[in-house]
Amino acid sequence: MQSLALGPFALSMDHLLLLIALVIALFAGWVSSRKGGKNPESALFLIVLVAALGARLGFVLRYSEEYLADPVQIIDIRDGGFWWVSGLAAGIATTLFCFWRQPALRRPLGIALLCGGITWGTTAVPLAHIQQNQQSLPDMVLMSQQGQEVNLQDYAGKPVVLNVWATWCPPCVREMPVLQDAQQSHPEVHFLFANLGEDAVTIDAFLMELGVELDNVLLDQRNAIGQHYGSRALPTTLFIDAQGQLRDSHLGELSAASLKDKLGRLLPDQLPQ
User: Based on the domain organization, do 129 and 156 belong to the same domain?
Assistant: First the structure.
């Protein structure tokens, strides 16, 4: 499963498991503080905040060219642009600072971080491994924009970026120019655009009005792709390797920087050092 729908809202499984780990850490810290020490709640939130800011700053610096072209994107964290290396460094530095400034926090904060880390490690890592090994490019037939039957497995042999979208979805519309540019720049990758539940006439009119030209537009009338991959939100973009195995996914709007980062995982020679 890639995402979970909560009424009108959707949450990726990664973010859900991160929230669960934070709740476990808060609870463990509170229990530990009752046996001696100080409740580490505020310190935990500080560590999470600084780690997130550090991860975002690191990501922006790695892809500074893309962000300088559209500076507003720097503060739009919905693109999922975070670099775990700089985030981890910022989190560790903040933790050490809290240990130094408030000795009474050391035991409860240490226990809280340990419990949160164990929760994350025993849920997110196995889930990612299971998803990558069980969710392959399906033997699924969809209709093309021209009315021809297309089997998704026909695209095996090259990396695939599979974008699930709809014309009525604002973030889908905003990311279309970014995906169009990537499709034109990366002929070594199959970009597929699976429209959810709309007809070819509606799609043609929408793309013409938007001024976007896309190859491989497919019609997914029954959300077959979403059911196969466990995706319950739009837009969802799936990154599949040349062997047909799911390697990464993104829930929500992609920026030029976050798409470049995701492509780097399919094409390691293009990933910034």
Answer: no
Q: What is the DSSP letter of 222?
A: T
Judgement on whether residues 159 and 233 belong to the same structural domain of the protein: yes
Q: How many CB atoms sit inside 10 A of residue 209's CB?
A: 9
We report the CATH number of the domain holding residue 147 as: 3.40.30.10
Structural domain total, the chain:
2
Cα distance between residue 153 and residue 139, in whole Å: 6
- What does pTM read for this prediction? 0.88
- Residues 108-155 pLDDT 10s: 999 999 999 999 989 877 777 666 665 678 889 999 998 999 999 999
Give φ, ψ of 196 to 5 degrees: -95, 105
Other C-beta atoms lying within 10 Å of the C-beta of residue 121: 11
Enter the tokens of residue 217: 């537009």
pLDDT 10s digits, 47-62: 999 999 999 999 999 9
Q: How far is CA 248 from CA 97, 108, 129, in A?
A: 34, 35, 11
